[in-house]
Amino acid sequence: MLKEPKWFGIKTKADFSRPGRFCFEDFIIIEKYKYAGKNNPDAYNGKVVVLINEYTQSAEELWAMMFKTIPGVTLIGSQTAGADGNKTPIPLIDGGTMVFSGLGIFYTDKSETQRIGIVPDIVVKPTIKDVQNNTDALVNKAFEVILK
């Protein structure tokens, strides 16, 4: 889908030399996912639709974020959970565990994704009538976009 790699996000991490300070740095936790795509002169040029909703979270949000930066890709559905980033567990004295995200995830323009989510290009939310009629509103919209 891309003729060359495209940078799609940045992260923040704690600056342990200055408590309370966070610094932007290159994306992402795993180096091979720093860029979307690779050098490919025969890249696919057709339409691509990606379905997302409020249950899309974590790594799937990073994929949606990456797809959103690629020309020709349309995200359809509802805003994602806004729960991307790593999980940092902290053991508690009673044997329980508290988990939080220790990284901030941002688009390359430094706009946030955490707590906001990935916003679709076309908002489609299933209705009660869709469920009653066994109709998948997102898939129907995807076909409409692809066949247009």
UniProtKB/TrEMBL annotation:
InterPro entries given in the database record: ClpP/crotonase-like_dom_sf, Tail-specific_protease
All copies of domain Tail specific protease, residue ranges: 33-124
Ranges annotated as spanning the membrane: none
Molecular function (Gene Ontology), one example: serine-type peptidase activity
Any single Gene Ontology cellular-component annotation: outer membrane-bounded periplasmic space
One GO-annotated biological process of the protein: proteolysis
Alphabetical list of PANTHER family matching this protein: CARBOXY-TERMINAL PROCESSING PROTEASE CTPA, TAIL-SPECIFIC PROTEASE
Name this protein carries in UniProt: Tail specific protease domain-containing protein
Organism name: Flavobacterium cerinum
